[in-house]
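cache lookup: miss for this entity combination. No prior model stored, computing from scratch. Input as submitted by user K.M.:
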Amino acid sequence: MSNPQRGAVEFRAVRKDYGGFTAVPNLNLKIEPGQLVTLLGPSGCGKTTTLRMLAGLETPTEGAILIGGQDVTRLPANRRDVTMVFQSYALFPHMSVLDNIAYGLESGGMKAAEARDHAARGLDLVGLAGRGDRLPSELSGGQQQRVAVARALVLEPQVLLLDEPLSNLDARLRRRVRTEIRELQQRLGFTAVYVTHDQDEALAVSDRIVVMKDGHIAQDGAPRELYEAPASEFIADFIGEANVIDCQILSVAEGQARIGVGGAELTLPARKGRPGAARLAVRPNAFHVRTDGPGLEGRVTSAAYLGDHIEYEIDTAAGSLFVVDAASSTARAPGSSVRLQFSGTGVALIA
Amino acid sequence: MNADNRRLDWILGGAIAALLILPWYKIRGGFFSFGWIGDLFTKSDLWPATVQVAIGRWQLWPVLALILGALWLRHARPSGADRGRWLVWLGAAGLVWLIAEGLAIGTRGWNWGLLESMFGEVAGQPAFGAGAVILAVAFTCLISFGAAERGALKGDAFILTSISMLILLVATFVFYPILSIFTGAFQDIDGAFTTEGVARNIVDPKIWSLSCLIGGPSCGVAWRTLFLALCTATATTGLGLAFALVATRTAFPFKKSLRLLTILPIITPPFVVGLSLIMLLGRTGTLTQVIEGATGLEFGRWIYGLPGIWLAQVLSFTPISFLVLIGVVEGISPSMEEASQTLRAGRWRTFRMVSLPLMAPGLANAFLIGFIESMADFGNPLVLGGSGGVLSTEIFFSVVGAQNDPSRAAVLAAILLCFTLSAFLAQRMWLSGKNFATVGGKGDGGMHAGLPRRLAWPVITIVTVWSIFTLVVYTMILFGGFVKLWGLDNSLTLEHYAHAFGITWGEDGLRWTGVAWNSFWTTMLIALIAAPLTAAVGLLTGWLIARQKFPGKAVFEFVLMMSFAIPGTVIGISYIMAFNLPPIQMTGTALILIMCFVFRNMPVGVRGSIAAMAQLDGSLDEASLTLGANSGRTLRRVILPLLRPAITAALVYSFVRAITSISAVIFLVSAKYNMATAYIVGLVENGQYGVAIAYSSVLIVVMIIVIGGFQMLVGERRLRRRSNPPAAKEATA
């Protein structure tokens, strides 16, 4: 624990080619100790390759990877101080739960009895005390997932890697388990790198989200930052849903920009915007839907009743918008004309 | 001390010990007899390498120097890429030198006149012994450890060593023998280079004549073999398809028993079917007598020759084709056929337009397998060949008996090899990626369409008739051992069994007086040694191919699979040519039989383990690695326990094949190590059919027992304790 850098991760100009295909062209990334960082992106964006390079399961073509301040680029997986929770859990089906957890400890040279002691404590940590003699196939999906976490954590790694750990669970269980993982990480204070393609999951668990696209980092920041100040259309649409529309920045003063959209006006933090044409990310729930009054003129083209909210497609001067109205309980008929007022939140200039 | 240095110390220690203590050259009576220790001080051939150098065998100096060099590197340089590179060079130089000096200097000095005229005379040397073998292993290890230090394959020394060892073994026991055939073709009796034998044989009309097409007596043996193979492949594919269709798509009542048929060719020594056919259809055969008695026709000796061989081969190989095609027929996704039916196509149209085209690649595959099997078959042609043999038997007769013409054998072997390898290449190049059959198991619900009626009845009839015929043939085998003199004296007797397996209580206890016991126990012993070795080498190779990425992997896999297409006869003749003289001399030992079995049967183990590995999620290996286990531990603790079914299959298969194979074995047996099949063929040649049949049926019964035993011993994978896992979704409630 004396190493102040323990748990820190750094990618320095890392490149990974598969034959002629470049999965990751040039990655530079630093992760602070004790943080839970999510690599988020659509499939094929290079996030899993990045994780596997960190685990030592792939070797970078170029560049260096540092863990705890030490260059581990050429170190094989079994000699790195990281462990991984696999998407499929990869529990050894022929070993009992306890043997699974003790496996890594014994690989490290620990005596069998001591390893089983440690393993039992690890099982306790994830709330499965007393189930050690079961086979993985005798546990539910959620329990298997916790065993996989315990198996990785008992080795007290500098960094815990999680590769889409929730994708094999059903929706409700997913919410509970992700809270558990976050709590465990906060309590024990380990560094975690978490790969997912699910933005809700990323927003819920992360200290920091690294959004990747085509092997590049598209944006990197705290969840709130990404949601409220997307750097690109891709981010705006990927983190939460958004309507991306053209607008005019009329003037900028004291960091606030006055913006005109299809006849309506609003004021927003200017970020890097200058007067002239710009793009606006508008969340579907950023509108009040009114029959008349000020705001953007529009015509309902389709409406869907979904219980607690109503979804509209509305044609406006700024283009066709996807709008969610949670305020009223009856849907307007297609063809009726409406006024859309900006509610004040959920709108951001794309920098 | 790090792992790099530790493993280097081990191997260098071993090499030095071998150089100082172990005899460098082969010991005539066998190393493990240890009788040689008594003669240690009188015979110079028994001395270790260091002493050999001292008494003037200068060719061993480089070996000593290279090991000393490696020792110096170990102590003077730290482990790392730089030392790694030097170790690779040292190891490679050592191996190359061992091969060069071993091949260049034979028992009587230089092997090639050219070298003698350049360097003068040199004392002859015996074949490699324990010391040399250990040094070859050590040099191979130096190469892989060096590569590991350089960071190849993520620095995994275990994988690197496994790969290089396998390459060394395959090169020695597959490549070198095959190469020896071709060099053998160009050598005369004294080993001097000559093209005379090849020139004479390559144009021999007995091989290439096409005279039968224009009314001559018979075609050359090459064409005859090709013709036979095409006929056999056609018939086995057709019958195999009929069986597969009946087993999967009809309401035939005995479908389960049909599948039992597939075990038959595995447990039947290859010539047994031929023997049984003789008893049934030969001149004094049962069926012949019945028909001749009823019609008054004379059948004569038609069974001896191509028609008989063809019949025997179709009987023997139809189950193999059935086994292949049942997978193909079952593998076609039922939803394709259901889709066709919902598109208004009737059963016949569905079968003709959808099912059959989808099966086409599988049918071609079965055809090629039948072709290769027929080409490689030795047992049936040997028993039924009569005057018109095929390539495999011609090879045999050109080295044994009066002819003794090694260069003719080499030419014939090369021709046979060309045929089978072309078929193998066709199978790989043409069929790869054309497989429409989906690997079963997942998702696809639905039912296979039944056969159209106009197809079902003929197919069921054919299958029934052929099944009955097969049944009769096998009943003859079991029954034939109890009949005094088949066809002439049909009284029942136990004489044959007593003759073969007699046991008497003498004054000195139990005595195995039966004539078969000697070869029986040898067979069991050798099969028992070969089976685990085959399984181990096969599984390790399969694991490397399925799970590891290394340069040249495709070639490695291709070569291994190719060895499957080398006919046993060719292997037999090539082993004789390669291992009869130094540097590697093994003929007449049990070792040559074991090695032959290991490398002949390994490809099946490889295929089995690749298939089994495909079902194991790759993340299991990766999980083990990230949990700190090295690849050796991963293999031992995670992969092997999960591969138990594949291990059983590999063990059983290699054991049974070691017992039933004849083609390669017949060249390699010796008076001391005679195998059951070779002994039975001897009995057949002497006309002792009764004893031969009795011995064969005992073998079949033994193999059934062994297969059952292996199954119980290795047991099932224990992945689930109960068949129904407890309430699966605890948190959803």
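stored under new cache key. Strands of chain B lie at 105-106, 109-110, 483-485, 489-492, 503-506, 509-512.
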